[in-house]
Hints:
Largest sheet: 7 strands, mixed
Number of helices: 15
Radius of gyration: 24 Å
CATH topology of the largest domain: Aspartate Aminotransferase, domain 2
Distance between the termini: 46 Å
CATH architecture of the largest domain: 3-Layer(aba) Sandwich
Structural class: alpha/beta
Amino acid sequence: MKIGAQQQVDKKETTTVFERWGTRPLINGKGVYTDLGGAYISPAVWALMTDANLNSVDLISLLEGTGRRIAELIGCESARIVPGTSAGIALATAACLTHGDGEAIERLPDTVGLKRSVVIQHGHRYKYLRMAWMAGARIVYAGDEQGTTPAQLEAALDPETVSMFLFVGHLDGRGGTVAFDEAARISRRKGIPSFVDAAFLNYPPATMRRFTDAGADLVCYSAKYWYGPNSGGFVAGRRHLVESVAAVDFTRFESGPVLRFGRPFKLDRFTVVGTMAALEEWFDTDHEARWRSYARRVEVIGAALAGVAGVTGRPRFFTMEETLEGTPVNCLEVRVDPALAGFSASDLQGRLSDGDPRILVHLFDPNSLIIVVDSMTPGAEHLVAPRLRAACL
Length: 393
């Protein structure tokens, strides 16, 4: 490209670098979602990720060092950074299928001759099971549509055929399922490793040791939920199983004796540093102050609705399960009475999305929107408030 042409491109970049490739920037009023790029990374963490760009590093050594630090933070034997919870499920499954055996690792997802079954309670069926399938596992459901009893779970956990028991952390306590504490005891008694998908169960930070303290052999978390990289996370738990995760991951694929299953789940040094730095920041954060900051942002946006006919706002808490509760506050619920306002909640959602910059919000039900602030960059509420008011008038 000629210098003059480059200068012309630069002049056109009035908002963000995304426009260079024809993509409109947006304000994320929906929450921390993968398809919206994950979370806002703090300046302090971003600075450390930038610093990681200045030097190369022995990535295996970095993964080992950060793993030791994570294990200290959550009080378990060992840990390893992985590229998110979905990759963590696949890698943990592969680890429990092979236990570090190089020949078995190279054959994955061919699991003929291995203990290939992964057990999950029927009431925990969810879309991420395909990550276990990816490693070659055969899924066995304990119980049925009526639920799962401890006896049914014990019967399904056959030590001759089962390599892993998968437990969905946020579904602990769901009716018709065996709670984790009891499930872990059954799994341990049968000699079968238990793995918990605890992707977003990281608040308060001290609860991140809950499952390993209760007997989980492996647990996985996603970094975007503690405001780290979208493609970060970690697996933690029993040392020998974390070592088996390391044995199947992307490292030493070219230089080692084993062609590893996990080669597609590659990490760079920036993501490893960002995942670790954000986790340490999460543990050091004054979370009461964090929640107060969200409430102030919600107040700014809600004030913009003063005097608008047929539209009201109420501070609420939008949970990771996509339900609404009263506290702590992280969103504004906007209710629209079409008869008084002259438009619907869906119309309002469209007006916000069609503007510049785009503002994406949840259509919670036919008469309400949810505007989440904890996924916005600081100060974005001062752009959202006037846009919301203008879209209502």
